[in-house]
Every structure is written in C-alpha cells, then in structure tokens.
Amino acid sequence: MTGRHARRARALVLLHRLEDALLAGAIGALVLLAVAQIVLRVGFDASLAWGEAASRAGVLWLAMLGALGAARRQRHIAIDALPRILPAAGWRVLHVVGHLAAAVVCGAAAWIGAGLVASERELPLPFVAGIESWVPMLVLPVGFGLLALRFLVGTVAPRPEHEGAP
Fold first, then answer.
1. 149 near 70, Cβ under 8 Å?
2. What are the CA-CA distances from residue 120 to residues 7, 39, 111, 134 (Å)?
3. Where are the domains of the chain?
C-alpha cells in the first residue's frame, strides 16, 4: 500500500469513528434527556421547557446518523432475493443500478430538504431559546446529501458477506 493509499485509509477509518461517536453521543444525549424529563415530571412535577422539541429533533438526527451507518456497512433495508441467486456479474449490475437509484432518491430528498430549510429561514419560528426553527431542519439536506454520497461511493463497494448468503 502506497503512502497516499495508507493516508486515505486512515482518514476513512477516522471518519467512520467520528460517525460512530456522533451516533453514540446522540443516543446517549437522548437517553439522558428522556430520563431527566421523567425524573423531573415524576419527582418534581416539572419539566424542561425545551425538552420535548429537542427530543423530537434528536430522534430525527439519530435516525439519519443510523441510516448513514447502515449504508456504510451495506446493512440498509434492501430486497436481497435476486442478489442471492445471481452470478457475480449479474449481482454487480443490480448492485450499481440499485445504489445509483438510491443516490438519486436521496439527492432529491436533500434538494427538497434544502428548499424547506430556505423557506423556514425566511420566516423562522423559535425552536428553543436562542435557536431558530430551521437549524434542526438542517438534518434533511445534510443527512440525505451524505446518504446520496454514501450510495454513490457504494456503487464501487465489494459484494457484502451476509449471513445465509450462498
């Protein structure tokens, strides 16, 4: 492996670790927020005013980070009946077409999400104190854009080894 390839491989490993850390942090933050809300409601008849809105936005961000991780490992939802019976060349064509289609759909969702964010920025509502409503909506263009990129990169990925595959 050349020096350039080794640096790229290390950068990719670092990126994957960052993605995993963000996912773990999001899960941890949502669990802590939920527990805090329960303790405050049950024990003190109170709650965090911003807790419900932050939880809803957090779940959306968590779902998008999870989807990115699943796509990275090629563990996203897929119909895998044909790939199990096709020869390698047929699987490759199906794999590329499927990933390109997914990239197009995710790219379109990113474009629509960017339009929603732009529209919300024109007349923003308060999300929580100091944060406007369009900020948590950034998950749509950013997340779907990254998914589109992930699927484009996935067109050149090797055939995944799944349990039960021939």
1. no
2. 40, 34, 14, 6
3. 3-154
Question: For the whole prediction, is pTM greater than 0.90?
Answer: no
Q: How many angstroms separate the CA atoms of 159 and 95, rounded? A: 8
3-class SS string, the chain:
CCHHHHHHHHHHHHHHHHHHHHHHHHHHHHHHHHHHHHHHHHHHCCCCCCHHHHHHHHHHHHHHHHHHHHHHCCCCCCCCHHHHHCCHHHHHHHHHHHHHHHHHHHHHHHHHHHHHHHHHHHCCCEEECCEECHHHHCHHHHHHHHHHHHHHHHCCCCCCCCCCCC
What are the tens digits of pLDDT across the range 40-74? 999 999 999 999 999 999 999 999 999 998 988 88
